[in-house]
Amino acid sequence: MLTNLILGCIGLILRAAGAGARQRPAPAAIRVLGWVMCAVAAWAAAGAVGAWTPLWLLLLVGLGAALISFFGVGDRPFLKLWADVAAFVAIAEASVPSLSLGGFLIALALILGGGRWLDQLATKFSARARVWSAIAVSVLALTLVGTQAGLAGFIVRRPLCRIAYLTITAPFEAHKVVLATGSVAWLDHAVESDADRPTWGAVFFHGANSDGAHQPAAIAMRRALLEAGFVVLSVDHPGYGQSPTPALDAPGEQWDPLPTATAAVQWLSKQPNVGGIIVVGHSMGCTDVLRLLVAGAKVDGAVLCGAGLKDSSRDEYWYGRFHADRRLPSGSLSREKVQEIRGRYYDNLVLAGQIDSTHPPVLFVRFGLEHENLVATRDQLYQAIPGVKEDWTLEGFTHYLSSFGNLGIVVGNARATGHMADRLRRWRGQLESTGSAGNQDGSSLQP
Predict the structure, then answer these.
(1) What rounded mean pLDDT belongs to the chain?
(2) What contacts 19, CB < 8 A, 6 or more positions away?
(3) What is the separation of C-alpha 177 from the centre of its chain, rounded to a whole number of angstroms?
(4) Nearest Cα to Cα of residue 134 among 163, 125, 70, 88
(5) Where is 435: in which H helix or E strand?
(6) Which residues are within 8 A (CB) of 366 and not within 5 positions of it... i.e. 6 or more apart?
(7) For 337-361, what is each residue's pLDDT tens digit?
């Protein structure tokens, strides 16, 4: 809720700045800025209800409305109303995933109603006051958004100066599913199911972050899967997100995450109209996927994103992370027990050697800007995986799909999710064309 309010306030600040700046008789450059700020206000407001839209589309809407206003139609109220509606239509069309109708209409009503009031209020001030106040508020608003973009650029080691591809959103909670093991998963729908055609499903396993399926990188990956046309079940790893942690005195067997991963695959496979199923892991989640392959899970493909081997040189660091990620008191588990759990359930090299060569096809995804320990070990892991596999690198983007989270707001790069979605879409097409994917009655899905 706090994140939604923050994004809503950013939208209001942007809208107030735009309302003042686009009034006549302000200089042309200031009026253009006003139209653009009003369009960007819709982008921030829609982000509060879960939109994931690149900024360039809204910049075009703002510039287009500014040009129209300079060709004889002036500042008529209908033009301003049209510009606000056009911005939201663009957001709804480009957003991944589709916005819920209720949230979309609430955000639209607030921007239309609040925008109309701000436009009227702006006319009561002198032109000089409007210009200077608009400039001041614009600087403040751009600082709020720019700080997020700057932090993201710093964190991902690549300037997010490709500001046109910037996305901003509040993490939204999809349909909550409680699995047979008591762990929690989240169901996202890309499109409405077609009653005459099976829909592809993806079970997604996140990386090592206590937020689980709501961490920034997981949200970016979920958006890519949704854009690629999958129904996505995102699993909170045991101890992460809303999934419970085993009792501290529980035997080692109860720390095994495989039952939760298996339950997630079984749950999605039983849903009406879900045909082919793939399993997708990011970072730590790759271990869940490898264990499913070892166990012979009935899936049609597996995707490993940012996988590598255990970093034994930093055992003390990972001992602390084991507790911190699962929100356990520091040192509450002995080093011996943590070492036992990690060795039994989280050793990717051992798991790769146990996979049967007849496993479903594997897509091994590397990131162009990657952690050094993963760069040093991912070749060894890839070579250890037998059977049908394919290697692909997402150049120019980080281990976290160039995403970043701050104050609950997720900032990302639309190009990262777009490239990932395109590759997943083409890979699914390969599975369909080769007949590798089977639906619930054993027949193959056709493209």
Answers:
(1) 84
(2) 34, 38, 115, 118, 119, 121, 122
(3) 19
(4) 125
(5) none
(6) 306, 378, 391, 392, 393, 394
(7) 999 999 999 999 999 999 999 999 9
- Token duo for residue 195: 């009653």
**How far is it, in rounded angstroms, from Cα 331 to Cα 346?**
20
Alpha-carbon distance 46 to 331, whole Å?
A: 43
Structure tokens at 147: 């700080």
How far apart are the C-alpha atoms of 20 and 125, rounded to whole Å?
A: 9
pLDDT tens column, 159-195: 544 677 888 888 876 899 999 999 999 998 754 444 4
Domains of the chain: 2-168 (no CATH), 175-433 (3.40.50.1820)
Identify the DSSP state of 73. Answer: I
What stretches of 191-313 show up as alpha helix (H) in DSSP? Answer: 216-227, 258-269, 285-294
Task: Say if residues 425 and 228 touch (Cβ distance below 8 Å).
Answer: yes
Q: Please tell me the predicted confidence (pLDDT) of residue 140.
A: 66
Q: Is omega for the bond preceding 329 within 30 degrees of 0, making it cis?
A: no
Task: Report the pLDDT value the prediction gives residue 158, as an integer from 0 to 100.
Answer: 52
Tell me the torsion sign for CA atoms 93, 96, 98, 99.
Answer: negative
